[in-house]
Amino acid sequence: MILIKLGGSVITDKRTYRTFNRDVALRLCREIKDSGKDVVIVHGAGSFGHVAAKAYELQKGRIRDDQIDGIVLVSRDTRELNALVVSALTEAGIPSVSVPTGSCFIMDDGVLVIGNTEIVRGYADLGIVPVMMGDVVLDRKRGFGICSGDAIMKCLADIFRPDKVVFVSDVDGLYDRDPKIERDAKIITNVNDDVLAAIPPETTVADVTGGVHAKMRAMLEMCSDGRECILVNGTVDGRLRSLLAGEEVVCTRARK
Ligand code: IPE
């Protein structure tokens, strides 16, 4: 089984509030379908989540009264995006069902708790792909918080023990310096803890849930028993398909 996260930077236009990149999402779903692999899908919130979550500071938990409006807004928008992703998967021929993170699971002091694994396991056992997403989630200590798709990936990796974990993003991989600022930045094809420690984190991160460096750290935590975690650019036509077919592609592979 392969656990795949479709990043919000690929399936939405992160600069414009609530813009779904339908063509890209559908192409990626078809590339997944063509691989013939069993998958579980998570997706990011992109411009359906980060813009409003940041404005209302939802990642900080309960700090002011008007955050209620923010919770309502972000929950509505992430569910809408989730429905669009499920539609794209269905159109590509992958039977899937929405499992909205904030409606099914809870956080405890910022950590996602999937106490009851029956829901996600049950759908997967039926041959239906459960689709979870980065979301606003109730928190036992903080009232509420933001749960990233990356945090969900970690929980699902523990539950499903996938052979491979793939993060589909809009970058070719992790670079030794910020490629948006430094022209001669080089891609790092293989990452371990030591390699990551030597790379400076991005100086500017617009998201409420961190950038590529934070993602790589989360990916390394998911590597166990020889499991590989891969960051691949989904904006390039066919690259995910080639990766899933076992071909060599431009990407960053994290290994313990
Ligand atoms: C963000 O999830 C969740 C919200 C802001 C509600 P992610 O951090 O996984 O989303 P992307 O992939 O960066 O867009």
Count of helices?
10
Summarize the main sheet: 8 strands, mixed
Cα separation of the termini = 20 Å
Sum up the overall morphology in one term.
globular
Number of extended strands: 14
Structural class: alpha/beta
Unreliable residue stretches = none
Cofactors and ligands? 3-methylbut-3-enyl trihydrogen diphosphate
Q: Work out the strand percent.
A: 15-25%
Compute the gyration radius: what is it? 17 Å
Following the backbone from N to C, one meets helices and strands in this order, namely EHHEHHEHEEHEEEHEEEEHHEHE
Mean pLDDT: 94
Helix content: 25-40%
Kindly report the spatial arrangement of strands forming the biggest sheet. 3-6-2-1-9-13-14-12
Description:
Helix content is 38%, strand content 22%. It has 256 residues and is of the alpha/beta class. The chain has an 8-stranded mixed β-sheet, sandwiched between helices. A two-stranded antiparallel ribbon has the order 4-5. Strand 7 (135-139) and strand 8 (143-147) form a beta hairpin. Helix 2 (22-35) packs across helix 4 (67-91) and helix 7 runs parallel beside helix 9 (212-222). The radius of gyration is 17 Å and the shape is globular. It starts with a strand and ends with a strand. The site of 3-methylbut-3-enyl trihydrogen diphosphate (IPE) has 21 residues, from helix 1, helix 3, helix 4, strand 7 and helix 7.
